[in-house]
Structure prediction request, 286 residues.
Amino acid sequence: MYPKIIYIGLLSFLASSYAMAFPSLQLQTTRDTNRINKFEVKKGVYVDCVWVKAKKYYQIWSDQKINPYGFDPTQFKKVVHFQLYDPQKREYWAPPLNKIVISSHFGPRNGRYHYGIDLALPVGENVYSVFDGIIRISSYNGGYGNFVVIRHKNGLETLYGHLSKLRVEVGDEIKAGEIIGKIGSTGFSTGPHLHFSVLYQGTYINPMLLFDFSKGAKLRNRKLRLFPQHFFHVGNPYKITLKYKVKEGETLAEIADKYGIEVAEIKRRNRLKSNQLKVNQILIIQ
Ligand SMILES: [Zn+2]
Prediction:
């Protein structure tokens, strides 16, 4: 069909875009070697006409550890760009649930940090993958109960916790909108809900950066930019002032929502007395 040279070209292109998203990736062995073999035999990943073994493609792989990457977010100094989905490759996105009811936000909670968003829904409701990817973990622990971690093609990972039923296995390829499990209350949970986390190199980021949960978990944008400020919750001391230029018709609430912070916080930082904004006004976000 296609000459071999194109295969190689595509693969090295993918490898380089992957390296951009994961600049510190190095080949590492993980502690789950007994299970990797099973995984390697079982599945590969079909990447633009080339079938590659998943471990080789992803380099660092663990079906046990949520964070096997060894990435230190306090050293994060650059902006990283992501293309979250790509219709040209028939890769799309989907909300994690059919109905969104937020029961807890990302942020400090009861003296600890809550590294995801809690979405309440009755036991048995479907939980969906938000992007295309491959199942990295489908397991149980005391905190998240039955949980799934999906490694996405866009360079991010998502975690789905407290499930009553797991519908996927490690190594399964998955498309956005496919069912991965059912809502439950397993693990450390006070009632039926989905705990939904987004991770970059094993570090949690605010899911609100990607999704507008006030509109049924609508994806905000096809692109995502991660700044050092997005890791301040893990103690990133690297301070750059993050500024935002107001677009026509935008409200303070929309801008606050976009960055997962409170309106009052933006008003305080910018010494705003009212909620009135002007087009092209510069706001300090962080
Ligand atoms: Zn939670």
